[in-house]
């Protein structure tokens, strides 16, 4: 029987010997390739208003002043561990906006709007990756939903912060982000340090999952420098990017094998930053390793941090709080409808409820006022 095709050659293009068939060695584990909307097209569909741009720009500048010591307010990044529902996120945003306005003299409140979740093994990767929670991976829809939520939160007058996990997604949403984070699992990644060097917002690097401060201090130093790397433009084309470096980077203490929010840990972290030539400013994550994964302990951690601030500690520039409408967390079983989920409860890390969060915000603001009075 005559062989229809020689597996050593691709006969679809011209002469039989014109093109080597590379399909035996290329994309052998790719199941499908689907079209992706370009950042430019998404931003054209969902443009940002002048007022929203002013809010993002003004908040970035204010956080920069805090990092440089010329603004004595505390940056508070607070909100759900991850976003999975637009309406519930907006209900939370409206509550947070009222508190942010009441405490604006003491706190710069940024809503935590996290769309991408790093997984230790496997699991739901977030609102952009799988917005329907059903394994359909409708990422174009996820990008649209993420941008719509950011526009709606910002339109309230509330700035948003997020973790930058995927290296391409910032092109779709970074114009609406007032503050960004690089997580503990990616702080050591050269690609994420390069990304941070070109981002227009302040960026916090978390200490390593084992508690290593040196990893994050090195990341801050690296992100302050200029880099050249490959990426995707707003028009969706491959390009080489050259960055100027980001001076508004800082350390986030999130605990590790042991918590690192206490006064001795703050002093040790600042000493490590000083030794690396990095400005001695830290943000404290009240959750994760610092709360030993017990969400209600965020209140205890927050109280300790407030005491340090009230006592005159000026090297603490901010805190992070995982908070949602209702306390705790829930599991989502793939295949069950979204309507089966309990409203306002996290799908990922357990969160404080709003009723627990609001008093904590007031406690932090009171600590800032006390610290301010010491130098009056």
UniProtKB/TrEMBL annotation:
This is Phospho-2-dehydro-3-deoxyheptonate aldolase. Belongs to the class-I DAHP synthase family. PANTHER family: PHOSPHO-2-DEHYDRO-3-DEOXYHEPTONATE ALDOLASE DAHP SYNTHETASE (PTHR21225), PHOSPHO-2-DEHYDRO-3-DEOXYHEPTONATE ALDOLASE, TYROSINE-INHIBITED (PTHR21225:SF12). SUPFAM superfamilies: Aldolase. Pathway: Metabolic intermediate biosynthesis; chorismate biosynthesis; chorismate from D-erythrose 4-phosphate and phosphoenolpyruvate: step 1/7. It comes from Inhella inkyongensis. One of its GO terms (molecular function) is identical protein binding. Residues 1-21 are annotated as: Disordered. It catalyses: D-erythrose 4-phosphate + phosphoenolpyruvate + H2O = 7-phospho-2-dehydro-3-deoxy-D-arabino-heptonate + phosphate. Stereospecific condensation of phosphoenolpyruvate (PEP) and D-erythrose-4-phosphate (E4P) giving rise to 3-deoxy-D-arabino-heptulosonate-7-phosphate (DAHP). Residues 61-359 form the DAHP synthetase I/KDSA domain.
């Amino acid at each position: 029987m005559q062989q229809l095709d020689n597996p050593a050659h691709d006969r679809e293009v011209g002469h039989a010997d014109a093109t080597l068939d590379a399909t035996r060695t290329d994309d052998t584990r790719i199941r499908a390739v689907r079209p992706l909307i370009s950042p430019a097209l998404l931003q054209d569909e969902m443009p940002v208003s002048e007022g929203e741009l002013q809010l993002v720009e003004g908040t970035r500048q204010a956080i920069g002043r805090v990092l440089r010591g010329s603004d004595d307010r505390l940056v508070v990044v607070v909100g759900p561990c991850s976003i999975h529902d637009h309406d519930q996120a907006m209900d939370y945003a409206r509550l947070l906006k009222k508190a942010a306005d009441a405490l604006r003299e003491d706190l710069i409140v940024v809503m935590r709007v996290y769309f991408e979740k790093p997984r230790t093994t496997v699991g739901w990767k977030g609102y952009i990756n799988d917005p329907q929670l059903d394994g359909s991976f409708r990422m174009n829809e996820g990008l649209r939903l993420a941008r719509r939520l950011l526009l709606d939160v910002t339109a309230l007058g509330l700035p948003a912060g997020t973790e930058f996990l995927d290296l391409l997604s910032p092109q779709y949403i970074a114009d609406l982000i007032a503050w960004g984070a690089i997580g503990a699992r990616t702080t050591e990644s050269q690609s994420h340090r390069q990304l941070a060097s070109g981002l227009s917002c302040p960026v916090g690097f978390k200490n390593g999952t084992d508690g290593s401060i040196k990893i994050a201090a090195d990341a801050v130093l690296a992100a302050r420098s200029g880099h050249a790397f490959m990426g995707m433009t707003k028009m969706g084309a491959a390009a080489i990017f050259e960055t100027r470096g980001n001076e508004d980077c800082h350390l986030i203490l999130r605990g590790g094998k042991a918590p690192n929010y206490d006064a001795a840990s703050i002093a040790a972290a600042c000493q490590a930053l000083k030794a690396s030539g990095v400005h001695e400013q830290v943000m404290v994550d009240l959750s994760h390793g610092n709360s030993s994964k017990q969400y209600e302990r965020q209140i205890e951690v927050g109280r300790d941090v407030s005491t340090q601030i009230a006592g005159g500690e000026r090297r603490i520039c901010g805190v992070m709080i995982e908070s949602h409408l209702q306390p705790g967390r829930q599991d989502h079983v793939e295949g069950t409808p979204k309507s089966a989920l309990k409203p306002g409860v996290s799908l990922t890390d357990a969160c404080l409820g709003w009723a627990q969060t609001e008093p904590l915000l007031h406690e932090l603001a009171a600590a800032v006022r006390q610290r301010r009075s010491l130098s009056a």
